[in-house]
Write a structure and sequence with these properties.
mainly beta, globular
């Protein structure tokens, strides 16, 4: 998606693996794994030890969307041990796009992935619930850290 002269405004930068931070963002998920530390590397060899979790049902959290938002960019740091991670992205329960992370790397397990999509004209600005919903039969959705940016 190309938006001439757009800038990114950071809205959130947090980890759902931290219970206090997750609660502050309204994080809710059923059937999530226990939080576990992963000591591995990114593809460029950078080492990282950080907590991660996986889930197979919809995970939701809230974010305040500023007026004038043209689109969203959601990023996740995740464990790519299992490839072909796929999920529906929901805004206030409505489908907004597919997020696919097809790569699998069992040696350099850390990766950053993202989805970018235009802001739906019918969704009002303000407090919005974002949902990440992996469909049945797909690998668990892994997440260690999340960022949300508004395209302005």
């Amino acid at each position: 998606m190309a938006i001439p002269h757009a800038r990114l405004e950071g809205l959130q930068d947090w980890s759902p693996t931290d219970p206090e931070t997750a609660r502050a963002h309204g994080w809710q998920v059923r059937n999530a794994s226990r939080v576990a530390d992963l000591a591995s590397t990114f593809g460029d060899g950078t080492e990282l030890t950080a907590p991660t979790l996986s889930h197979l049902n919809t995970a939701t959290w809230t974010v305040d969307i500023p007026e004038g938002t043209l689109g969203l960019v959601i990023r996740k740091r995740f464990d790519q041990f299992h490839g072909r991670q796929r999920a529906r992205v929901l805004l206030n329960g409505e489908f907004s796009g597919w997020w696919c992370e097809p790569a699998e790397d069992r040696t350099h397990r850390w990766a950053w992935g993202f989805i970018a999509f235009p802001w739906p004209a019918h969704v009002p600005y303000g407090r919005v619930t974002i949902g990440i919903d992996p469909p049945a039969g797909t690998p668990l959705w892994s997440v260690s850290h999340l960022t949300v940016h508004a395209m302005m």
